[in-house]
Design a protein that fits this description.
Blueprint lengths: L2 H15 L6 H25 L3 H13 L4 H7 L8 H10 L9 H13 L11 H25 L21 H8 L12 H9 L8 H9 L2 H8 L4 H21 L2
């Protein structure tokens, strides 16, 4: 990836830092998030066997995927009023940053930025666009889990979790039912803090690259999520399912 992209990103984000006020720490955190996501994508590139051109598009998309977040943070806009993926794509499209790239690569990058935060991806995406998005979304999930473990607590609203009802034991029966069926949990169903930790664990059914599964296990983050759940018979069944499924997926991926 050419240095001009990282230089643009630094100038852009530093400009928002000057306006951030009380949100300065959040802006800095979003910058660090971006660089960790880029690091994960670079690891995924190593296993994906893509062309150098597409690998470059994957890196650029990772670097720019959250540019819409920075004005959102500075202006205090909520997700109900502002789609940071769509906004980010518009911001980049209004610059000349991608002008040296082919039309195909520009389209892939802008689509990656636009759709990375959608609950589901559009059906009509090209194979290359879908691959870029799947890599980015895997990387984004890995860092979202890391951030939830680091920052989420009963006193602080964090990310998509919003305001949770915190309780050491409570978990919604519908959440457990979906989990035992190995289904992705809609965020709208999440009520309790334990619901949210299970919601995050269920992301193993929406990851695409071997690196992502291995990182979850090797980093200890997946086990740390499971440790957040109460020690009762219901959650013991859920924990066993998650552990066995993650191990099975990793074993299946071995040559």
């Amino acid at each position: 990836m050419e240095e001009k992209y990282t230089e643009w990103f630094e100038t852009y984000t530093n400009g928002h830092l000057t306006m951030a006020g009380a949100m300065t720490d959040i802006i800095e955190r979003k910058k660090r998030h971006t660089m960790r996501v880029l690091g994960h994508v670079r690891e995924i590139i190593k296993e994906s066997g893509v062309t150098p051109e597409l690998a470059g598009a994957m890196e650029i998309t990772a670097l720019l995927h959250d540019v819409g977040r920075f004005p959102q943070c500075v202006k205090g806009m909520t997700a109900k009023d502002y789609d940071h993926g769509e906004a980010g794509a518009r911001i980049i499209a209004d610059t000349d940053l991608l002008d040296s790239l082919s039309m195909d690569m520009r389209g892939i990058i802008l689509s990656g930025i636009k759709y990375h935060n959608r609950a589901t991806l559009p059906a009509e995406l090209s194979p290359d666009t879908r691959l870029v998005l799947e890599a980015l979304r895997d990387a984004d999930k890995l860092d979202a889990i890391r951030n939830a473990l680091k920052y989420l607590n009963p006193d602080v609203s964090h990310g998509k979790a919003g305001k949770l009802a915190w309780d050491d034991e409570e978990i919604s029966p519908a959440i457990v039912d979906l989990t035992l069926k190995r289904l992705i949990i809609p965020l709208s169903m999440v009520k309790w803090s334990n619901d949210y930790f299970v919601f995050l664990c269920c992301w193993i059914y929406d990851l695409h690259f071997v690196y992502a599964f291995k990182h979850l296990k090797d980093s200890g983050n997946f086990e740390a999520l499971l440790a957040k759940l109460p020690d009762n018979d219901q959650c013991a069944t859920v924990k066993t399912l998650f552990r066995e499924d993650l191990d099975w997926i990793i074993a299946k991926s071995q040559p």
